[in-house]
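Model: You mentioned two targets. I'll fold them one after the other.
Researcher: Yes, keep them separate.
Model: Target one:
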Amino acid sequence: MDPIASVLAFLFFGFIGIVLLVIAVKTIRIVPQATVMLVERLGKFDKVASSGLNILVPFLDKPRAVYWTNTRPGLVSIDLREQYIDLPPQPVITRDNVTIHVDSVVYWQITDPIKAVYEINDLVGGIVQLTITGMRAVMGEMDLDHTLSQRDQINAKLRLILDEATDKWGVKVTRVDVKNINPPDDVRITMEKQMTAERNRRALVLQAEGDRQAAITRAEGEKQAAVTRAEGEKQSAILAAEGAAQARLRNAEAESEALTRIAQSIPGGDPGHYLITMRYIESLRDMTRTNNSKVIFMPVETSSMLSSVGAIKEMLSQTGETDEKDKPPPAPPRPRELPR
């Protein structure tokens, strides 16, 4: 066999093999799990190649390549899993004209790959720009203090804005998180001083509140003690009054018994007149005992009182004479013996 013919035959079969290999590569496409591939036929969208083995018509069907920010250029497979974009710090001006730097993370997922490719040129770049503008719009309506303390509200508003804007792109924004909010150094120093002053004020307020509660508790205790003391004094007064009443009743009973006996011992006598006379005598005795008594006023009934006293004296003397009469006579004196 001619060597030239052999070379030509080798070249021919090699060319045929290369052509068949290229056709096989363009015909058979394996798509990974959770990814899809858009197939265009003669420059027009034809179908969506799902995960697994897919057969394409060579030289007619062609996968659509995408050129998105932060992705490999000419990417033909579209990832359907949830992805995230880490945004660098962006300058934002608050409502009180303070420039702060904010960085955030956006979590998103492609729900319709056809819209994600044909509705926008750069999907990732569009989401980044929407996040920056939405963040400036939301934080521009808030003061610096609110931006630092209301991150959950900022995240919710940003997610709502991005979700509404990216819905026509076939994208679902699942979450937006603001990571850091960095104010300028002078503002940060001022805020630290303000926080220190606020803490001192709260400490003073808490101390004053504690003193007030202590004073209230002390006053309540004193009030309760005073009420208890008054209750005790009341009970003591009641018992003393009851004792005095019992004593007066006993004295009255004793005087009644004495008057009864006096009335029985003095036939025809008046016990009331006797009692009044005794009260007069006791009063005069008390008046004469004082050192400052210079003049003694005698009552009008002094004569009658004295006559009563005389009557009592006569009665007592008669009683004494009667007793002397009833006594036996004394024995005669014995004669005195003379000493021997």
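Model: Target two:
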Amino acid sequence: MNINWGRWNLDPRQLTLEIEKFGGDLYLIPLMKCNSPVEILDWIVKLRRKPWATRQDISDLVDALDDLLDLEENYCGSGLDWTDGKVDYTMRILERRFGLDGSDILSQAEKR
């Protein structure tokens, strides 16, 4: 599993994507708050409005989310919302995609 996309990094312990803003502070996107296409789009739009975020940062975020969650297959293929509205939807996607249970996702990501 890739854990770096441009300036974005996956923190496997917290299940967050993080990027260092100019000045050293981290901006975090918790994957567990990406349970629907609307939530995912909200994070992308929020990032777009940050003065420190570049177009490449936005593109790399989309790549990271797609690599981890397979967006078209699991969230919005054919313009339809495939999510079931449950807060643990993303965890179930990660478990299914990587063939692991919740605790194993963390240990496998740390090995890479």
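Researcher: Noted. Anything on target two?
Model: The two ends are 7 Å apart (CA to CA).
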